[in-house]
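COURSE: Structural Biology Practicum
ASSIGNMENT: Worksheet 4, Part C
STUDENT ID: 0417
INSTRUCTIONS: Below are two proteins. For each, the amino acid sequence is given first, followed by its structure token string. Answer the questions at the end about the second protein only.

PROTEIN I
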Amino acid sequence: MKWTFYQIWNKSLEDRQQKDPKPRDTIWATEIGGAFVDRYLKMKGEKPTNPPNARSLRKFEAGNIWECIIKYVLSRAGILISAQEWLKFEYPDLLPVTGKLDFVAGGNPDYQKAVKLVHSEFDWLPKSISKATLNIITSLREKFPDGLDPVILEIKSCSSFMFEKYERTKQASQHHRFQTFHYLKATGQPEGHIVYISKDDARMIEIGVYNPSETENEYYSDIQAMTHFIRTGKQPPLEKPIVFDPDFLKFSANWKIAYSNYLTKLYGFENQMQFDNKYKPIVERWNRVLGRISEGKNMTKNNEEALGEIKKEGFDVDVITHLLAKEVKDGEHDGQVQ
């Protein structure tokens, strides 16, 4: 009987037993910043109508692979302090939050021992990884001979599209900021870093999260709202299908709906493709209008109709137009500076 490696590989990654949800009064750190209605149903023990499919499970494992590589590099560089530690924090009268951080790195490494370990234990990884680790050790030894302050590291792999957004805006996603801030709040540490890795080309950027910072106000408000929904038994409102991204100045189909584990129950779509087929054409049409506004072109009849749809859905066209104008002005200024 013939066999293929890819079939064995795919099945091994997809063969993950899904746990039956159970009611709970603890918020997972990874949930903060997500759709309240989805979180409410999960915490009430509602069985998902749209659990992660095979592709989603493989994407999770791709992230785990990158975490494994980063852990090995940190360990062999001698700066891994701890990994996968569960941390809990609770404000008075609010639900507790718990989560498992990726890594704490820093400390006082034995650089000489680290170099020996790289030479002796990196045979299974590409030479480029071994070389990168040696370069890291050399750089740390030169810049921090007396050791490094401990820093929490959260590793997030993403598509090149999302990576370029993070790189352009220098802003981490809201739910990643909340998750990292939770670990800072639970440990009392002042600084954590979200490390984004592009799965397409292995580029990496690092964005800081700090304690104290304004992030705590958002973090607290999220927990306060979730506590209210759970304790009153009142289901949160549904998400809007289209959202406006102030960083990219574009509309997009709401990922909180597209990836909802309750997509069918809450929104009536059998799968993500159905949702995308309905709303992505609308998003493209609306974004064409934004393009014409940015270029200073006159509105066509079709454009005017699209503007009416945008207003009807509750978006402030005047505010969006102001943001677009500012973007154009800033771009012109940057061109003059060059």
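PROTEIN II
(use this one for the questions)
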Amino acid sequence: MPLGQCRLCLQTVDLRSSHFLPASLYKGARTPGLKNPNPVLATKKVSLTSSKQLQTYLLCGDCEDRFNRNGEHEVLRWLAPNPNAKGIFPLLDRLSAATPRYSTLGLVGYWASDVGIDADKFAYFALSLLWRAAVHQWQLPDGTITSHIDLNDFEEPIRKYLLGDSPFPAHVIVMVTACTDLVSRNATFTPIAFPDDPHTTYVILTQGVQFRVGVNLPPPMRQLCCTSSTQKWIFSRSCEDETMQSWASLLTTSTPVPNLARFLNARQRKASGE
């Protein structure tokens, strides 16, 4: 373990090899039973199957534990352990069995307290991913690096919140949505700035759970936050259009490696039980 400055607590200590995305997300994206069970990773340059995980020496052991304790451990248990397993999505299953507090065409809303979900940890998890994207540009399997996320004046308040030195940042909201579509359930996207949005909004997708992090949004929008609003909303809806839009944006420049189409067909047959 190299000696260096932990980017969260700012102490000079032994650093751990930190993951950008939790390791269990890679495990859940695998397709057991196939000759090549590894997930498909798509960058702006290439699309390929890979077991490589995005890691770097970023945090100390205490801060790694802090991230796990305050967000990751709780959130990851609500995700589908295998995105190809039909009918297994704990968060969506829990919401579907509850009585909504709000319902309109295509969007259903619940209070976290009604469904027994710790929404504060979902907010912490989302901001921890966004912060990691902002403080380091991670090397992708094709050798390129992730796009830079500039949080400007919000980076330091988010760091202090993640460290436990400050409350949830003012003028920041986190919206949590359980995606009802299978496309989003089979996808994970690192934080990206949402296109064509008049406000500053970042979107993160983790195997069927979509997080929207907004900064400086109008006051009515802040009432939709999963942690700072009185109701602590959690929503469910189809996110397929947005997920497909993100895929399409990547695939305009991403070149598939040989045999990728054959792998995807085998994965689809496995998912459908053929």
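ANSWER KEY EXCERPT:
Q1: The CA atoms of residues 41 and 117 lie 30 Å apart.
Q2: The first strand starts at residue 3 and ends at 5.
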